[in-house]
Each structure stands twice: as structure tokens, then as C-alpha cells.
Specification:
CATH superfamily of the largest domain in chain A: D-amino Acid Aminotransferase, subunit A, domain 2
CATH class of the largest domain in chain A: Alpha Beta
Largest sheet of chain A: 10 strands, mixed
Oligomer: homodimer
Number of helices of chain A: 7
Helix content of chain A: 25-40%
Chain lengths: ~290, ~290
Amino acid sequence: MNETSDFCYLRSAENPFGAILPKKQAHISPDDRGFYFADGVYEVMRTYSGQLFRPRDHLNRFKNSLAAVKIELTDINAIPEICTQLLKRNQLQGEEVFFYIQATRGVWQRNLPFPPPDVIPTLYISVTPIVQPETERTQGIACITMPDIRWQRCDIKSIGLLPSVLARQAATEAGAAEAIFVRNGVLTEGTHTNLFGVKKGVILTHPLNNHILPGVTRTVVLELCQLLNLPVSETPIQQKDLNEMDEIFVTSTTWEVVPVISINAIPVANGKPGAITRVLQKAFQDYVARTIK
Amino acid sequence: MNETSDFCYLRSAENPFGAILPKKQAHISPDDRGFYFADGVYEVMRTYSGQLFRPRDHLNRFKNSLAAVKIELTDINAIPEICTQLLKRNQLQGEEVFFYIQATRGVWQRNLPFPPPDVIPTLYISVTPIVQPETERTQGIACITMPDIRWQRCDIKSIGLLPSVLARQAATEAGAAEAIFVRNGVLTEGTHTNLFGVKKGVILTHPLNNHILPGVTRTVVLELCQLLNLPVSETPIQQKDLNEMDEIFVTSTTWEVVPVISINAIPVANGKPGAITRVLQKAFQDYVARTIK
């Protein structure tokens, strides 16, 4: 498993100016609204060779999440610099890492309405070296489906992830690497991935709406499909049509493009990573190589 | 607003045996699953004259919440004794207070599946003197309705309360004291209350299912209706029938029975607390007087 590095960044009621400090000294108050209400949002941003990947997309998505829940984080543009400092402090320059960035509505007496406007949002950032998911990428993964019991705003990257915890644990217990949510008969997305299918040469994925997260890797894959002239339809995959799919794959910031070879222990097509999935894996890595100097 | 007392109880990875300590010294790790996943549940239990009210109901509900999310809290039966110690330490014996009790799946590297079984759940308990909601009880409150965008397991008292935060803030901005959720055309419950209506002498409330919390005060009110021979129907109130309701009220542990005099700025019946609501308020207080020695 990925292990988070020692130094993190924390800005909170106790440290109003923010500081990089050893994680053991990073104290969250039990009165933090993130702790008792999940009143916060997060973002995960990665590097290749020490450079942030699509930072504008990630920061824009973070801004959208913050705006949707009305948390005013005035120092959001300082995040890339904090990330750079965290790399230095943890001696991880040039490494492939991901940053976990979480903002909450700050520390206040537990009461549902927002606290007074002078309460400072908490901002927490950690850095974790990426263990490359080579087995997943080359051999593909098994998935299960789970009822999508989540809220109606899955487009917000909220820290309220208990339904995803329970779904992912069910996957783990079934020997699967990911759980795919099903709502109203359609596959929406995984617990930490977006979902794609290929049927008769057309790449299918759930359209952007309130039921899925607008994944940055999802966006890059759709851009690559356009570059490669691969036909795309932003149409959700029906659970009843799963046996007609030629390929399935999932995407995420740390996984990139990972083939799905079985769902609920039933093989996808011939149970091997698909040809178009392979093309997109390669195209994604070429894109990274072109983008990162 | 209610202000939490200085001494709280915390049992966490850092304090594995648990201790009563000043809240400023109570440190939650940023790696607590409650902070980054809302991977936890809570309970609110109150006293009258220093005695716990219906503690078995509250502890059973807490056990049900813990079981539903598969958090194993082996020391749940120690909670009443911890509460007693907290009263002493805060010099609140004999006062009317509420205890806020939160358990999370403990401290571990951020990863969706459950941590290893030897990771200790975090247990946090605070105590807060109750500011009596006299104005609410005597004059009644204004409410608004909000779409119920919450997850499908509102019967679990999960700490993932962001949708309730947003709904309650909308109520505050509208000058209302509570937001009532509407799902599929029916009123389910408030952000921290259960909802009741009275129509032609029959008391209506949403049946217990996955869309509402099984409120302890709801149970007591239903028991009192039986004692008083008041007819009850566990049938949800349709939003379209709101203008036909003779009375509306909400219940909660700290509020008891509070009349609703308007919804979305439209008066409920004549806009005054209803007669049956008054009967139940009185019956509730008599019940408390009988129960607490």
C-alpha cells in the first residue's frame, strides 16, 4: 500500500498561518467540522517526474467542489507552491507522488448551520509516493457491482465517503479490486475510478452529471479518443448489457487506465484486457511523456 | 448557542486506553478515518436532572449504527460511566446536558477498504449544557423544505452530514429554524428532527425505513399517543397535502416536541401551535417527570 510521507501541511484554527510539520504534530481538533460533519471537500493531484500533472484541471475541480459547498478558501492558488515545498521537505523531488488536499469549514461548536465568516477553513495537504499499479495495468482487475446508495451530488469531491468505504470493503472481501456503483440500472462509476466500456468499437462512459465525479483522467482519455479518432458516446452502460461489452476499463489519477477483466466473477468478453484499452493505456503514457519535460 | 464544556473523553491510536482531558489537548490525527472519509457514526444522549434519558434506546441505536457500518466498539457499555465521569469533571452533576458520542474506524493510511482488525476505533465524547429551546417550544418554528439529496441509509446515524449542513444553512438564510427533506414527493424528516403531522385528528409520521432516523423522541411520542388513545398512522406526509394539515411538529432529543407554524413561509393551518401538539408537549414533560426520580 502507498505510505504517506512524514511531513505534511496544516493550516487550522490552531495554526492560522499554516505550516509544514511532522504528521505526528499535525493535530485536528475534535471540533473540526471535517471530523464531526464531513463538512469538507478534497482533491488528489499527482506528479510525473516531480511535475504536477494537469494542475489547472485539479485546482479547478477543487474550486468547483469548494464553491458547491460554499467553503471560501482564499489561498487556493498557494497550493502548488505548498506542494513544491512538501516535495523538498520530504526529499521527494523528481519522484512520482500524489498530493492529498483536504479543506474543511474549520473549527467551531458543533451546530449544523455555517459558522461565523471569520472561522478559517482547515487546509491539510499530505504527499505519498506512488506504488506503480503494474499488475493492475498489465493483467487487469476484477470488479463487483454495488447499489449506488450515495447522495445525489457525486460530482462534488466530498469527504463523506462512507458508502464508498463499505462498497470497496465488499469488493476486497470478494477478492475484487474495485466496486462499480449501479443506480437505476446503469453503471455510474467506481469508488475511486471512472468507468468506460467498449461495444462494437464505440467507447461508452457515463455522461457528466450529478451522479459521477468529473475525473481528470476521464477528461484526458476522452481527449485521447478524439486525437486517435476513436468514436465515443457519453452514454451510461446498462447493467443488463454487461454481457455484450467487448471491453471495460476504469480510470483514475493514480491508476491511469486499468482494464477490467471480470465483473461479479463473470469475465468481460474473453476475460483479458481489451485491444482498445491497450491502445489508450499506451496513448496515455505517450501523452504524459509529451507533457512532462 | 449551546457551548460544549471544557473536558472531553478521547480514546484514539495516540491514547489507546482513553482519557478525560481538556478539549484543547484532545488531538485527532489527520489520518483518522472520521476526518478524511466520514467513516464513523455518532449518538446524542441527554440528561434530565443529571440522569440519562432512555439510555438503553440511545445505546441500542448506537450499536445498530456501528453494526451497520461494521465498526467494532468493544467498550460501548462503558459509555454511561464515561458520561458520569464527564459530568463530575465538568462540575455539571444535576444539570441538563447532552452527550455527543462519536466513533470512527480509527487511524490508518488513507485507503478505502477497512484497516487491519487491530486498528482501534476512535471514541470521542463531549458534554454540553442544554440551552432550553423555550421560544421554539412555546411559539413554534418556521421551516423550509429541501430536496432530500442524502444517501439511502439515513437510518444510520452517520457523521457524513454535509447535505444536512447545506439544508440547514439554507433554512438559516431563509430565517427558518429547520429544513425538512422531501424525497419522491413525501416529507421524510428534518436535518436533526423527526417530523409529525396531524390531519383530522390522526397523527401522521414517516414509517421507519432507510430514509429516516429512528428517533428516540419519535418512539416516546408514539408511546404517548398510545397511552393517550390518539390515533396514529405511520404514513408519510405528501408535500402536495401540506395545505390540508391541521398541525405539524418536529421532535428531537434536545428539542423534545416543537410546533411548526410555517413551511416555506406558508402558515400551517392558522399559523399557531396546534392543540394536539400542545397535548403531546405536556405529556412528554409529564413522562420525563415520572421517569426521572
